Structures are given as C-alpha cells and as structure tokens.
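Input chain follows. Return structure tokens only.
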Amino acid sequence: MTPALLTAVDATSHVHLIVGSNPLAGARCSRAIEVGANPILIAPEDSTLHYGLVKRIEAGEVKWIQRTFEDEDLTTLGRAEVDGVVDAVYVTAGGKHTS
C-alpha cells in the first residue's frame, strides 16, 4: 500500500465549492470558514438545508447559489487570481428536497 502524503495548505481567501445541503455540507462550510476560505454552497432552492447551514448563510458567512450544480461552476466561481477556477470542491450526497 502506498503511504499517504500529508500536506499543509494556506487556504486563506480560497474559494471552496460545496455541493449539497446535508449535515456534511454544513461541516464542510464550517471547516472552510475556520481555515479562512470563502465557502460557496450550491443546492437547489427547494432543498432542506441543515440548520447549521441556514445560520451560516443568514450570517453572510456562506454564499448560497440556489440551483443545481453546473460544470461551468468549476471555472467561473473561483478567484480572479486563478482565472475563476475554484480552489476546492466538496460533493455531498443525500440532501433532501421538498418536491
């Protein structure tokens, strides 16, 4: 088995794209904020958001794009310094929808 490589990355001002609305998405957003990144959540408008996510969105700590993920999000939502490419992507599954 190949050993894992541990790295330390300064994520200050990086854009972390989180896809989904479940508790794991909430945890990813919280961790992104802790390391100084700017989390962007993509989840449909009819998603049932985890209460932690709602608090972070209301506080302005998380930007919520209310729609489904699109491939272009990877190259348009990031920082200008890296030509719009997001720095990290976290896909969570199992989000609930009201429809």
